[in-house]
Amino acid sequence: MPDPIVPKLLLSASLTFHRTSKDIAQDILSAGLARCLNLFPPRGDLALEQMRRFEVTNPEAALERLHRVSARELIRILTGRYPQLDKSCLDGQHIEGPVLYLSYHLGNWEWLGGIFHKLHGDFRPLTRSIRSPIIHRKIQRLRQSVGMNSMIDHAGLRGGRTALKEGAFLAFLADQTPPGASRPGRCLGCNLPVSPLPEWWSKGQDFRWLTGNLIATSPSQYNLDIREFPSSCITQWDRLLDEYLEPILRHQPEHYFGWWHHRLLPRDVSRETSQ
Asked: Looking at 39-140, which runs of residues are DSSP E strands?
């Protein structure tokens, strides 16, 4: 049996979030919001059912924690509190491109994008447009403020190859339902369709394949973890990425915001479940 392919640790750091009286008030607000979210089931039902299918231990308690963490992080993102995150420990650190970053909706993705911009300088994530034009513009302004140069929807399909050719840091959250074409693959411990884009973007190109996350370990502390897979194994990206991330999702389900998205539970099935 060949040795398992484990991503090597590239960077690990603990970042302090400097809380002010405003942040304390926001944490109280987020706790109240979390309690309200527990009272309204539609999205909670989706997350709870997907946790059950993923066999999360005590999914009801995990959902309560997910509400608390997601409410706090959402309020911090929307109110532009990224400058409160002390990134001085990253001074002098650099990640050279071109880079293909693949991960799941784990931890504070918006702020991780800001960190990647600081470490690399040309951060281009592939993102999806938000249905509400007002919310979409608001989120895009917040992303741009931390250095995220998003390629939205179809602009990113071909833009991904261009980004790698130009030495950029290309990022894709690969646990979402594949946009457009798909192939059989592995995601969240299940045989599910995955996107063929990572292989197509990187075919014939020199690049580094990274993964990682930024997880809040307390209201005033975040842990940054960045790891590197061998780029020669990119054709196995879905299996290797899932093998690495699945244990994290099982032990820290409250930090996986992908529970709010349809992946293990298709939209037609979730509608039947809620009736």
From this structure: 99-103, 123-127
Please indicate, yes or no, if residue 196 is contained in any of the structural domains: yes
CA dist 251 and 249 (Å) reads 6
Residue 96 covered by a domain: yes
Instruction: Measure Cα distances from 238 to 18, 34, 224, 266, 273 in Å.
Output: 36, 33, 22, 19, 28
The answer to whether residue 117 sits within a structural domain is yes
Task: Report the alpha-carbon distance of residue 188 to residue 245 in Å, rounded.
Answer: 8
* Residues with Cβ within 8 Å of residue 262, at least 6 apart in sequence: 46, 177, 270
- Residue 251 makes CB contacts below 8 A (sequence gap 6+) with none
**Residue 165: CB partners within 8 Å, gap ≥ 6?**
98, 205
Show pLDDT as tens, one digit a residue, over the chain (275 residues): 567 899 999 999 999 999 999 999 999 999 998 888 877 665 568 999 999 999 999 999 999 999 999 999 999 999 999 999 999 999 999 999 899 999 999 999 999 999 999 999 999 999 888 788 888 888 888 888 988 988 888 778 889 999 999 999 999 999 998 877 899 999 999 999 999 999 999 999 999 999 999 999 999 999 999 999 999 999 999 999 999 999 999 999 999 999 999 999 887 654 444 44
CA-wise closest residue to 69 among 264, 253, 263, 265: 253
106: left (phi over 0), alpha (psi -120 to 50) or beta: beta
**Tokens standing for 23?**
């942040």
Number of domains in the chain: 1
Looking at the whole model, is its pTM more than 0.85? yes
Residue 182 is part of which domain span? Answer: 8-265
